[in-house]
């Protein structure tokens, strides 16, 4: 921004003012920057714009604690963003936004609604930030506390768009912006090994979440084609490197699908794989995606799976479910709207 304002003939201090308005206050219009001269508004409007996507659709869970937005950018590309509020349970101190990093996804995981539509393009850091501000504005309008946590777990593979994700992390963390602590941010990956090493070398105190869903190569390759390029052994080495470089425990996401990966044998394989590692497991009873044919396991099977993991000394929790009734899994709202339009 300093380079920009200098190039436009403005004093360098304008950069901090503009940054604060855009990243700290979330203004939608340049003319809302009240401490900037009007002639400066005109110049900025000629050369810049503030990314504020249009809300195409919005749904809210029955409990009112999960809100899903379908946002459209200027080129017509749409992405999903989910706001999960915990105000009632945590005394108004936690609101989490799940942001998308790509429009669509090219990873081809068989259980994911996002991948069905294929990959359109990467999002810019500005487009990622605009999702956070859509959620932040909703919080303000409904008298919730501000956004406190960010998870890069929406549509797309975050590490396939690593430069924009890293820029977003620094923007979110900036004291002149939303000032979200890095320890309150989580970046998910399906296991892009080279990018996992690059992220580890940044030594940021963020949480890395690895989507595993299968502990042996045959099962994981069946669910996640990326495993054919980066098998389980390589993913685990990269995860260990991340834990070593950052001192942060790696989270492993494991979605349970009935009759596919929810058996005692699969639990034993996962237990042996993670035993002794600096790791934590999120067990996720899968959201149903009709196109995939995958089904949710029953609660008894989930408990049996958890018990077997515990016998290996692996720390695991069943992730709190939010938004099942509004199709909160990645890509489901967008597909529903697309079908209606057709």
Automatic annotation (TrEMBL):
| Manner of cofactor binding, per the entry note | Binds 1 [4Fe-4S] cluster. The cluster is coordinated with 3 cysteines and an exchangeable S-adenosyl-L-methionine.
Cellular compartments per GO CC: cytoplasm
Locate the residues binding [4Fe-4S] cluster. 105, 109, 112
* Gene3D superfamilies, alphabetized: 1.10.150.530, Aldolase class I
Q: What class of enzyme is it?
A: transferase
Q: Where are the transmembrane segments?
A: none
**Per the database record, which ranges form the Radical SAM core domain?**
91-325
Name the catalytic site residues: 80 (proton acceptor), 330 (s-methylcysteine intermediate)
Binding residues for S-adenosyl-L-methionine, per the UniProt record? 156-157, 188, 211-213, 287
Q: Which UniProt keywords apply?
A: 4Fe-4S, Cytoplasm, Disulfide bond, Iron, Iron-sulfur, Metal-binding, Methyltransferase, rRNA processing, S-adenosyl-L-methionine, Transferase, tRNA processing
Query: Tell me, what's a Pfam family for it?
Result: RlmN_N
Q: Does the keyword S-adenosyl-L-methionine apply?
A: yes
Question: What job does this protein perform?
Answer: Specifically methylates position 2 of adenine 2503 in 23S rRNA and position 2 of adenine 37 in tRNAs.
Name of the protein described by the UniProt record: Probable dual-specificity RNA methyltransferase RlmN
| Species in which this protein is naturally found | Formimonas warabiya
